[in-house]
Amino acid sequence: METLVAKIKEELNEFVTNAEAQVVKGNKAAGARARKAALELMKDLKEFRKESVAEAKK
Questions:
Q1: 3, 5, 14, 48 — which has fewest CB within 10 A?
Q2: pLDDT averaged over the chain?
């Protein structure tokens, strides 16, 4: 679970960096990277929720 949280933090930082580059600088490639990071982040957040619920039921 700790590794999953670390992965989520890393992906969130990547998303924020690229999203800011798109908004501030108009960098289209950064926008594509931000969207990709958002998809990965969404998958990992769902996995975190699944593991968290399983831990709570123990």
A1: 3
A2: 95
